[in-house]
Amino acid sequence: MLPVAARSPRTALLALLWALLPGFPEHVELEPLPQWQPVGENLTLRCQVEGGAPRTNLSVMLLQGEKLLSWQPAKGTPVAEVTATVLARRDDHGTNFSCRTELDLRPQGLGLFQNSSVPRQLRTFVLPKVRPHLVTPGIMEVGTQRSVTCSLDGLFPASEAQVHLALEDQRLTPTVKYSKDSLSATALVEVAPRDEGVQQLTCAVTLGNQSQRTQESVTIYSFPAPNLTLSESEAPEGTVVSVECKAHAGAVVTLIGDPDESPFPSAQITLNATAKDNGRGFVCSAALEVAGHVLHKNKTQKLFVLYGPRLDKENCPGNWTLEEGISQTLRCQASGNPIPKLDCRRKGDGALLPIGESRPVTRDISGTYVCRATSRRGVATHEVVVNVIYQQSNLVTIIAVTALILGIAATGGTVAYLYNRQRKIRKYRLQKAQEAAAMRLNTPP
Ligand SMILES: *[C@@H]1O[C@H](CO)[C@@H](O)[C@H](O)[C@H]1NC(C)=O
Ligand SMILES: *[C@@H]1O[C@H](CO)[C@@H](O)[C@H](O)[C@H]1NC(C)=O
Ligand SMILES: *[C@@H]1O[C@H](CO)[C@@H](O)[C@H](O)[C@H]1NC(C)=O
Ligand SMILES: *[C@@H]1O[C@H](CO)[C@@H](O)[C@H](O)[C@H]1NC(C)=O
Ligand SMILES: *[C@@H]1O[C@H](CO)[C@@H](O)[C@H](O)[C@H]1NC(C)=O
Ligand SMILES: *[C@@H]1O[C@H](CO)[C@@H](O)[C@H](O)[C@H]1NC(C)=O
Ligand SMILES: *[C@@H]1O[C@H](CO)[C@@H](O)[C@H](O)[C@H]1NC(C)=O
Ligand SMILES: *[C@@H]1O[C@H](CO)[C@@H](O)[C@H](O)[C@H]1NC(C)=O
Ligand SMILES: *[C@@H]1O[C@H](CO)[C@@H](O)[C@H](O)[C@H]1NC(C)=O
């Protein structure tokens, strides 16, 4: 018990006194624990006790909370070290470890004296040996924003995990959602023209002193829409218009309507503008291949053709036979761009024909009219004859008077015959006229 023979007599004397006189330990300390302890790995607890006598009556306890882990005599001078190994578990996270000495001087009639170390809190963690799951768009267009998500399951304690998301060396600021044992971090990536090319997107999840990372490539491309140009967007009829579609570097275009639709970096068609081309749309579709994806961008342009004014039989019949008293809408339309103004005036008195209004036909609209369509491009005229058929209510009287003058002993039968015949003729004419009109005229029921 007294290995002091080699020391000076003074030291040997002090050691002897120290061994004999009872005294509390001067210092009881639990060695610092690792900042983070992986679950499933052994943790060694070390407790150092300085002083305390007599050593034969001094023991050391290692405690987790109030739970006794190990109880050993204090061995070693002048500092006694006591160790214990524990397998770290999830449940140990947040628990306190401490070490306590007991100087048992009860046999000497002095009692039991305890001294404790400052407690140390343990933090345990689980970071699975798998790479985080990184969801990226794969390709991204310059000037756009997309979100990327990185997630990892099986974390403990998930809320303590840190995420680092970066596009090359440009750090992103993700919004992190924690659940019981996982996390999911979402960040917006915005790419600028200087980022064009293949870039690495990295996600690293750090927990405790460990980290897991994943990398994915993102191809950043620029793809401006093609340029679709018309030599004239408002062309007078009969002018030659060229339509040209040009792609930007790397892309090819297809101009819809081009007989030679094979894709080239540019395409062109020329046409002699006709009234039919007014409002015609041209579509230029550019295609670009980026990392195995074929992308399209389209441009549309409309051609406006200035023509007319025009008045033709199809849209304005030249001969209208109408029946008095029947409601009808008189239709006459002039075509042209710009849209012409139209009026039809009767020859002679200049009365206006009520076009486009639904109203009962009166006999006084009969006559020959000149329809005139006017636009800043000129004037077109068209003659329209309007016949109104009406009841000849005085016919019977005329026939009766004629018969009287001629002195013929006319019977009611003859008059009736004549009247009926007259009526049949009129009916027949009307029928014919209506048939003729129906072919050209849109008559509402
Ligand atoms: C040890 O405990 C005793 C009482 O049990 C106390 O008087 C003494 O100061 C303690 N020593 C240390 C170093 O804490
Ligand atoms: C993490 O900490 C443990 C315990 O302190 C240690 O054994 C291990 O080497 C450390 N790992 C890393 C990657 O630093
Ligand atoms: C932990 O230590 C015990 C003995 O103290 C040993 O049996 C066990 O294999 C160790 N476990 C690990 C994971 O090192
Ligand atoms: C205390 O030490 C003495 C000898 O120094 C021994 O006889 C006694 O049994 C010890 N008591 C305890 C409780 O260890
Ligand atoms: C561990 O000790 C710290 C102070 O050191 C205390 O705040 C905490 O509540 C203790 N934890 C437990 C589980 O006792
Ligand atoms: C365009 O078509 C019009 C009518 O068909 C014709 O008169 C004209 O000469 C044509 N212009 C050209 C340049 O071919
Ligand atoms: C498309 O038009 C813009 C200006 O309108 C021009 O700067 C650009 O060079 C054109 N691109 C191509 C491929 O012609
Ligand atoms: C562009 O045109 C191409 C070919 O006509 C078509 O497949 C594609 O869906 C169009 N894209 C858009 C955005 O309109
Ligand atoms: C109009 O039609 C009537 C019969 O429906 C016909 O007799 C006449 O000749 C036609 N006039 C013109 C100008 O077409």
Automatic annotation (TrEMBL):
Domain of life according to the entry: Eukaryota
The UniProt record lists the keyword Transmembrane helix: yes
Alphabetical list of InterPro entries matching this protein: ICAM, ICAM1_3_5_D2, ICAM_VCAM, ICAM_VCAM_N, Ig-like_dom, Ig-like_dom_sf, Ig-like_fold
Transmembrane segments: 395-419
Leader peptide range in chain numbering: 1-30
Subcellular location: Membrane
Molecular function per GO: integrin binding
GO terms for cellular component: plasma membrane
PROSITE patterns documented for this protein: IG_LIKE
Pfam families linked: ICAM1_3_5_D2 (PF21146)
Domain Ig-like, chain residue ranges per copy: 309-387
A biological process term (GO) from this entry: cell-cell adhesion
Membrane topology of this protein: Single-pass type I membrane protein
Keyword terms: Cell adhesion, Disulfide bond, Glycoprotein, Immunoglobulin domain, Membrane, Repeat, Signal, Transmembrane, Transmembrane helix, Ubl conjugation
Protein name: Ig-like domain-containing protein
